[in-house]
Amino acid sequence: MFKRFVQFLMVAFAASAVAQANVLKAPDVLVKEVTEDVLTTLRTDPAIKAGDVVKTAELVETRVLPHFNFTRMTALALGKEWRATTPEQKKVLTEEFRTLLVRTYSNALTSYRNQTIDYRPFKMGAADTDVTVRTQINQPGGRPIPLDYALEKKDEGWKVYDVMVSGVSLVTNYRETFAAEIRAGGVDGLVKTLRAKNASTAPAPVPAAASAAK
Amino acid sequence: MTKTNKQSNFNIRSVLAATVAAALFTGCATSGNPKDPIEGYNRAMFSFNETVDKAVIKPVAQGYDFVMPDPVQTGVSNFFANIADLWTGINNLLQGKPVDALSDAGRVLVNSTIGILGLFDVATPMGLEKHEEDFGQTLGRWGVGDGAYVVLPILGPRTVRDTFGLAADIYVDPVRDADGHRGYRNTAIALRAVDTRANLLKVEDALEAAAIDKYAYVRDAYLQHRRSAIHDGNPPREADDSAALPSENLLTMEPLESTWTMMLVGAPEAPDVDVANASGSAVEPMDTAAASF
Fold this sequence. Notes:
B: mainly alpha
């Protein structure tokens, strides 16, 4: 009886996975769903509303990040320097850059959680594999801020590989800084700098994690 | 901090002089970024601006942000934005976008009347979208290259081209031109400055969280933002040269360049950097830029 139940669950799980893989969500629908979902949580969750940074990061981690391609982002940020790195360095760089972006992104989300988001009209061809979804943050007392997502089509679905605020890419904006770090101390120097930066901005309630990162 | 406040004008000027002098001595300390040939001076001016901001401008903006209720702040922002829409429209016309220009004129008309002297932005909900144009963008549209990056005292990041653009913007500024009402005029200019700074308070936190080298982060964000603004939010994507061979970057050069570029310093767009590196003749633009200062 129990065995049959487990079998049923497994089949159901497999079926849902297949269904998900077959029907790729359109990129604009994906961006809208994830944004609305996250904003709703940001506005309603009592802990996050009270300023719990760890919880906010957790929210971003579980709901937003699965839709991001961090390896591509890191490659984009390093530009031609990326080719000269070892697979091991690529892995570490991606990890550290990911942490940095998550912090930045969570920070921005919390500052703007009470703003409304508009989704600009979106058009794409059936064969497109690289698109930009445009949104804008409307803030009372200020001009709307354009927030655009560049997505690429992967087997698992559309993945965000760049985020642009007012035309400024959060990814490529690091290029010159990264290049300068690499010129000064090599790729390992850049890794070290990223680690130090991440340690300095680690959320306060977990000092153990911060010191471990060093 | 109180010290700085007490020792008025004269001291700010001598600090400025010292900063510039220090910058000249450290002027050679560039990291070889072709877009930023006077990095030594720029970094010094950047930290001078940061100091002034921290001591004076930011506290005032924070006070303003704290005291003024949101609707009032919105009204103030809208009021100045409405005045700016005039110049935006003229620039759109100069850039060969008559439809946008007409929409800007419509905005001014609607907001100045129904919107009560521009205090309310009723034009946006009516479908007349707000544009941001200035003379620096117009020059860029006409094919003038960025020129070197330069940090101006107090005013902050610009490029050589945008500095010329800024001079034109200031020259035609209707607020500055409000003759015969000197008292109001100066108050208006100050209020606009404070309002602008207050609007940036939120961005700043995100900036602190993101930047590894704040100077470089602000510089590159400014350059990217201007590039996007000149293309009205649709700039051609920068080359992802993480996979390409250096020679392939030649293909990403922009057709936008013209003889105008020759009048200022080179390197109008990012891909150019790679071109310069690839051909091994990247040095000349820097020298020209240094000479022009």
